[in-house]
Each structure stands twice: as C-alpha cells, then as structure tokens.
Amino acid sequence: MKIEDLQAFILVYQYRNISKAAAKVNLSQPELSRRLRSMEEELNIALMNTTNRRKLVITPAGTRFYHHAIEVVSSYQRALTDLANERPSSTKPLVIGTVPIAGQYNIAQIIAAFNNHHPQFQIRLIEDQGDAILADLTAGKIDAAILRDTQTTSLSALEYQKATLLTDDLQVILAKDHALAGKPSLSIHDLQNAQIMTLPKGSGVYEPVIQLFNEAHVKPNVYFQSAHIETLTSMLKHSASVTFLFKQSAQPFMTDQLVMKPLVPPVTSRLEFVYPLRAGNQLLLSILHQLMTSDRQKK
What confidence score (pLDDT) does residue 120 get? Predict the structure, then answer.
C-alpha cells in the first residue's frame, strides 16, 4: 500500500464517488477501483460496499480507516515540508512562473528586492497564462508557480505544497455612466443581458465567471477576450460592456471613468505559491516567507 493509495481512499470517502476521486488523482476509474480492491485485500476487510451502483456506501471499518489515513497522509506532508529546511539551496537560477499579476500584487518588486539583498542567488520570474504555467510546473520546467486556487485543484497535495499568499474578491468593472453603475452590488441575473469582455481561459478569472453563469443557468454573452487588463479597462469607457477582475489586480487600472461593483453572492479567490514537495529547499522557503510577509500595498 502506497501513500498515494491512502490519498485516493480519502478522496473516495469524501466524494462518495470513485469516478470523481479518480479524476482528482489523475487515474482512470478502473485503475482506482483495482487499487481499492488491493487495499481491502491487504487489510483483509471491506472498506466500502459498491453493490448499489448508484450509491457508494462506506463500511464502519472504512470510516475508521479513513481517520487513520488522514493522520498518516498529514504526517507525511508535514515531514516533507520539514525536510525542505534541510535541503541545501542550489546556485542555479530558481525559476518561478506566475499568472499576469506580478505588478498589481507587488510580487515582481519583492523578487527584485530579494535578488538585490541576496546576489549569490538569482530568482527569475516568468509571466504567462495559468494553463501554461501549470504545464511547465508539472513538467519540471519551473521550480514554483504563483496561481489562483481555481488553477491548482488538479495538483495532488501529496506532490505539491500550496501556500496562500493572499485572498481577493471578484468584482464587476463597468463605466460610471453604465445603466447598472448606480447599483451597490450586482448579481449574475443583473448581468444576464450584459455584453461581457473577459480575460481568456487559463487566467483564473474566466473560469469562475463562466461557472457563476452556469450555476445561475444564464448564458454569458462573452464577445471579447484579451490577456491584458489594460485593454479590457480602456474599452469599457462610455461602453455598455462589463468585465470581471479581482479587486487588487484591477485597482492600478481604475480611472475616474470606471466603477467597481462587488458580486452578490461574493466570490473570493486565493493566490497560491505552489512547489513540488520533494523539491522544496531553503531558498524556496525563504522566497515564500518574503512573499507572505512583505507589504504588497503600493506606496
């Protein structure tokens, strides 16, 4: 039995669904089912009852084993995190990929200051769309990534450390003379007829926006996509269009011609620093500490 098998069982217990758990750990349903049967054979006890194909039932033994699995996996994760302090830092450049928010959240400035104070190390920061950053991280082309939580759900907690740098609220940005500008907040139903401009797929913004419309059973009228926030905000002036941005990333681009309205219900996102657990070292932890403790508010 491997630690990955314990994590898979934890997900099966939480989802009560083998297909959902298999997708979460990047396994096919037959392969995960095979591993679960192997676990039951090794433990010599049934952990679940799958006779009813519509409803997976966890046995009393499965519930007890779930709590033991949680303890083992949590201990393993803590051990890997603790060992990162003991791994020496490499002198080769450390590459961090980030979604295009390095300027708005003051991340580029923090990295530059770190490089100036520690000339023996060199930290490189690369901006790209989230899907490209995620692909580079899983392929080992970069050492760490800064992504929104909506973009890191596919990463296993057994393989990657995720640390929250900050949280931010999704906002609707529109012209001050827009018909909806006088409302204190906006719902998806308020926006069902709005023309929408948005950041593209992989931005960490497009995904929650589309999900909001889908959950409200409203088809969004997305007619324009751009990877550049400045392009979106400049096109809003005296326009009937709206766009969605996270508050702190939008603030540098706000003018007296634009207004920002919160969504109801509110949508909050975490910006996360992610790195492979087995590759964590003193330098990565130092960078993470600097990013978590530095003041990101622009002076």
Answer: 86
CA distance 32 to 13: 13
DSSP letter assigned to residue 205:
S
Distance of alpha carbon 164 from alpha carbon 270, whole angstroms: 6
Q: List the chain residues with pLDDT less than 70.
A: 84-85, 87-91, 295-299
**Contact residues for 150 (Cβ-Cβ < 8 A; gap 6+):** 204, 207, 208, 269
Q: Select from 251, 244, 199, 195 the least CA-distant residue to 222.
A: 195
CA distance 68 to 147: 31
Phi (first) and psi of residue 19, to 5 degrees: -65, -45
Record the tokens describing residue 198, joined without a space: 């948005």
Is the entire prediction scored with pTM above 0.85?
Answer: no
Sign of the alpha-carbon torsion through 114, 117, 122, 127: positive
* CA–CA distance, 131 with 71 (Å, rounded to integer): 32
CB contact set of 39 (below 8 Å; sequence gap of 6+): 1, 5, 9, 47
- The single-letter DSSP state of residue 186 is B
pLDDT of residue 89: 65
Complete domains list, the chain, with CATH: 3-84 (1.10.10.10), 94-166+270-293 (3.40.190.10), 167-268 (3.40.190.10)
